Amino acid sequence: MSGALTVVGLGPGDPRYLTSDADDALRGAEAVYGYKAYLDRVPIHSMQDHYPSDNREEGARAAAAIEHAVRGANVAVVSGGDPGVFAMAAAVCEAIDRGPDAWRKLDVAFVPGITAMLAVSAKIGAPLGHDFCALSLSDNLKPWALIERRLDAAASAGFVIALYNPVSRARPWQFGEAMARLRRHLPPSTPVVFGRAVGRAEETVSVVTLEDAESSPADMATLVIVGSRETRVIARSGRPPLVYTPRAAAEVSA
Amino acid sequence: MSGALTVVGLGPGDPRYLTSDADDALRGAEAVYGYKAYLDRVPIHSMQDHYPSDNREEGARAAAAIEHAVRGANVAVVSGGDPGVFAMAAAVCEAIDRGPDAWRKLDVAFVPGITAMLAVSAKIGAPLGHDFCALSLSDNLKPWALIERRLDAAASAGFVIALYNPVSRARPWQFGEAMARLRRHLPPSTPVVFGRAVGRAEETVSVVTLEDAESSPADMATLVIVGSRETRVIARSGRPPLVYTPRAAAEVSA
What we know:
The structure is a homodimer of 254-residue chains. Chain A is α/β, with parallel strands linked by helices and 254 residues long. In chain A, 29% of the residues lie in helices and 26% in strands. Chain A contains eight helices and 13 strands. Chain A has helices at residues 20-28, 36-39, 58-70, 88-98, 101-104, 116-124, 144-156, 174-183, and strands at residues 4-9, 31-35, 49-53, 74-79, 107-111, 125-126, 132-136, 160-164, 191-196, 204-209, 222-226, 232-236, 239-244. In chain A, strands 3-2-4-1-5 form a five-stranded parallel beta sheet, sandwiched between helices. In chain A, strands 7-8-11-9-10 form a five-stranded mixed beta sheet, sandwiched between helices. In chain A, helix 3 (58-70) crosses helix 4 and helix 7 runs parallel beside helix 8 (174-183). The longest helix of chain A is centred in the N-terminal third of the chain and has 13 residues, at 58-70. Chain A is globular. The termini of chain A are far apart. At the A-B interface, helix 1, helix 4, strand 5, helix 6 and strand 6 of A face helix 1, helix 4, strand 5, helix 5 and strand 6 of B. Strand 7 (132-136) of chain A pairs antiparallel with strand 7 (132-136) of chain B, so a sheet runs across the interface.
């Protein structure tokens, strides 16, 4: 008897963003593991059990799902967005890397999904239309000094920056610090896009300037895109603005 | 009479990666514009016309699609992958920004898709599991010196790097130069993932080291992911290796 583990990206929330590959993987699973807010989005199919866990328990969840699959079941682990971007795919790989040899023999697959920065970008135009970085602002798993170094490197080299996990209750000051750091490299007028709960009923998308960014409300459901010097805003009467970064770029001044 | 323009991401190729939102947008369009290789993936629905164009004609294609929609039609423009990542969404925004005022009144929407780096990542594990950059190696629209500067910034700050458009017939030497540049910052053993035509019948995925990367075959259908110092390879007997970047990172040495 040989089980299998599939790590499935749910996209940003609304089922219309689900790929048919992800839908098939969820229907075929005997057991589904995930953070409980994500599991709530997955309908329970016949003969299927759901195993919710808390947000911070990614390592334990990965290990439990692998164990379950190794015992012979067809198991799915769900992630919001894409499982490979600040989500469960790395947690599953870490568990396999550290786990017993038997875990390396398991049939493991990953099903991609629409990650938050792509969903937010699509709501507002094409802010990621040129070279860009994706950076988690959480300093739970890396030192703040490293985050600052990466903000410096990305902004000074002209990358647009997508910020995941900008704020949480346990990390109240980091977002403001990050915005201040970016103002060392970028003009106060640089466009900053806030996308909150994109793809869900309570979705909001707004555009501010870097100067005003830290006073905008952000939380763990928010994805922030900080433009480069090239990013432009197209005002439209009676419609929301479009924000985009042109495909062409000139040399960035030092 | 008022038309609409929707820029639709097809994902990496296989229809199983298409979201239902993208499928709906394609079914509802009266006219579909796109690079002919992407248009070939879209079934022609009833009462629908297809307008194929060449790879290099993004600006002209965007303008033609906008004009068509402004005349009152429901028009779709297709992109491979995600339209917001080195694709048609920025070309459409550029055209609107430069075009007549009437174009700003058009109803424009963007439907995200699975971009190549997410598809390649999912095939091999979680190489993008920590902070990463997406960088086009094409110097058609930006100077090579800027690309080198961005490679330096990204690699030295510890970002994983996803390289789009690594090689074309008109750009034979750039990929080798980029790999040589990255070896200034990263050990020769750094894992490098080549994903070619992922999501299509002829799909190949391979893992080499940075030392050997430039002799690996790459073309415009290839997406290359260069790991960071933290990226790890899990060897598995009888199965392909898993490549992942751990969620946690220590300070990068200067």
